[in-house]
């Protein structure tokens, strides 16, 4: 018997740092989902579930949203900004009772991004949300019903590309202004990620410069250096095909 998406989820309790409301948000049970690898840009893939759908947490009372790892990190000034810029426009909405659809999740990520803008979050946090939204779009595209592929695929691909561009520019800005670790990543992982994003966007010259620096740096973890070598080969093939 196959495991259903809802069987891999649980309701996690949160307290909103903005309005104090207690609520629950769906999250993936630890250790239950089976990993089946990652995409070039480190998007995690699991059997039977897209875990990215469950990383945005949204308060159902005031509309404040953030990725789970950032949800509780709020200053008094940021709380004030959310109350002024997000809550007055927020319309309460019910999400799936058993699991979140891609539409549900994208809506939640949009609230998280709007909150990041309102609270003037770091460039890395905004870039991370954009990256995960791009992954959501990819997951949605991969799971389109056959009858919808022709009408929706190109539109979703276009949205994914814009989000990848936002993520790349945001991480590059953060790389120059912020300290590491960044979004849980060391500098070598961020450079690998940026190179992968540039590869997906067809910016091969920028991609190869970044990954070459990772490969030759002896301080970089062996795993990232090896992934970097594989990425450099992919960049070479793609740039040949382009020319």
List keywords for this structure.
two-stranded antiparallel sheet, 6 strands, single chain, two-stranded antiparallel ribbon, mainly alpha, 7 helices
Q: What do these coordinates show?
A:
The chain is mainly alpha-helical. It is 52% helix and 11% strand. A hairpin with a 6-residue loop joins strand 5 and strand 6 (65-67). It is globular, with a radius of gyration of 19 Å.
Task: Give the gist of this structure.
The protein is mainly alpha-helical. It is built from 7 helices and 6 strands, in the order E-E-E-E-E-E-H-H-H-H-H-H-H.
Mean pLDDT: 95
Poorly predicted runs:
none
Question: What percentage of residues falls in helices of 4 or more residues?
Answer: 40-55%
Beta-strand content bin: 5-15%
Q: Strand count, sense and closure of the main sheet?
A: 2 strands, antiparallel
Radius of gyration: 19 Å
Q: How many DSSP H or I helices?
A: 7
The secondary structure category is mainly alpha
Secondary-structure map:
Blueprint: E1 9-15, E2 22-28, E3 35-38, E4 44-46, E5 56-58, E6 65-67, H1 76-85, H2 102-118, H3 123-142, H4 146-177, H5 187-200, H6 204-216, H7 222-242
Antiparallel strand pairs: 1-2, 3-4, 5-6
Helix pairs in contact: 2-3, 3-4, 4-5, 5-6, 5-7, 6-7
């Amino acid at each position: 018997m196959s495991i259903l998406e809802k069987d891999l989820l649980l309701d996690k309790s949160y307290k909103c740092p903005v309005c104090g409301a207690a609520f629950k948000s769906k999250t993936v049970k630890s250790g239950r989902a089976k990993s089946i690898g990652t995409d070039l840009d480190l998007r995690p893939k699991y059997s039977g579930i897209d875990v990215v759908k469950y990383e945005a947490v949204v308060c159902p009372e005031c509309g404040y949203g953030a990725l789970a790892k950032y949800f509780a990190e709020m200053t008094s000034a940021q709380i004030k900004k959310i109350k002024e810029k997000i809550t007055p426009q927020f319309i309460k909405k019910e999400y799936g009772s058993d699991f979140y659809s891609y539409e549900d999740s994208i809506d939640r990520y949009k609230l998280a991004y709007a909150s990041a803008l309102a609270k003037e979050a770091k460039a890395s946090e905004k870039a991370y949300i954009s990256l995960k939204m791009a992954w959501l779009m990819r997951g949605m595209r991969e799971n389109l019903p056959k009858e919808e592929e022709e009408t929706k695929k190109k539109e979703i691909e276009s949205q994914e590309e814009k989000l990848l561009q936002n993520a790349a520019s945001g991480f590059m800005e953060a790389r120059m202004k912020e300290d590491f670790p960044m979004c849980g990543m060391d500098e070598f992982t961020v450079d690998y990620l940026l190179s992968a994003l540039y590869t997906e966007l067809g910016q091969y010259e920028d991609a190869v410069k970044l990954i070459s620096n990772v490969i030759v740096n002896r301080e970089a973890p062996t795993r990232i250096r090896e992934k970097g070598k594989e990425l450099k080969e992919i960049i070479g093939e793609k740039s040949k095909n382009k020319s």
